[in-house]
Amino acid sequence: MRYKPSNSLNGVKYEIRGRLASKAYELEHKGYEIIQMNIGNPGAFGFRTPETMRQAIIENMANSEAYCHQKGIFSAREAVVMQQQERGITEMRAENIFMGNGVSELIDLCLRALLNNGDEVLIPSPDYPLWTASVILNGGRAVHYPCPKENNFQPSIDALKGLITDKTRAIVIINPNNPTGAVYDKEHLQAIAKLAEEHNLIVFSDEIYDKVIFDGAEFIPMATFIKNTLCCTMSGLSKAYRACGYRVGWAAFSGNIKEACEYLKAVELLASLRLCSNVLGQWAVQTALGGVQSIKCLVGKGGRLYESRKAIINAVQKSQYLKLVKPMGAMYAFIEVDKEKLTSFDDYDFALKLLEEKHVLLAPGSSFNFDANNYFRVTILPSSDIISDVFERIEDTLSLS
Are 365 and 371 in contact (CB under 8 A)? Predict the structure, then answer.
């Protein structure tokens, strides 16, 4: 082959937009209507960004034609400071906040500034696969710590502790979790913070779903537990504010900033090389964080997300083949197929069959750096009627397996 890809991509996967998604695209171009359950993309299911955020962008269009500071516009960073201070992270400062083209860009940027070849990063399993991919692409080694179903997908602290070596540089947590919907409790967060401080590890806390929680679950910011090491809190406008296309995220550093000066300079250098992130979308941050939090209506009883989640829970309960640890946050359900009843089940083969025969696209569980091959992830974003229809198609497909 004349034009070979870089060896740095070995081990990198992102099946959420991979082979199955490409197959779905082909089917759509043949005229089939595909129900896309594979991605948490609110705008694709009729969710609108709050009007006040759109208005903030319109009013600041004239101020968006030049590059801004490499860390982002001040009003956006200061809005993040105020939010974090209200949550008890009182030492947060605007100069330690970086705005990015979504959290995805910031994950890559922050890891690139940190890792040397062979450095290790502890990542939950199952994970959001961008974290693993970004570690590999930046020369590191992704080491996955288990979050067992038997523990409601909370991290196994003993296993995590046993994976720390002299090459470990950081611990990643995803809370609320994608793909499982777990919302980590205080005891687990405190235990992770203690380990990080004992071993001088940076904690990267992916909190993009911080407001998408159900049934009284409590989201606790990781940064509230960390004083003696560095914590990077990542969030953005994509999910709770239904603004994926704005591509606005932030990385907010707190904790032991004094010892992290050289690292933060490296992050800023990389931010400078890409000049700045999308200026126009940043104008929505202050309005978003300071205004009415409309997501509360969607996740509360009777709200659309609440009812869609309920439809998934009910469908699993009725199924002959499916099991579910009830998701308490985020926009997904991580569903188990009973292998005692379907002994030859394979997640990818099932997903392909479901797509080709029933025109439903979902993400196989093994796509999330998870050893088991009898899980799949669906988003809760479609309406409850669509979800009920989807699970009828799933049940029919499983019955014929």
Answer: no
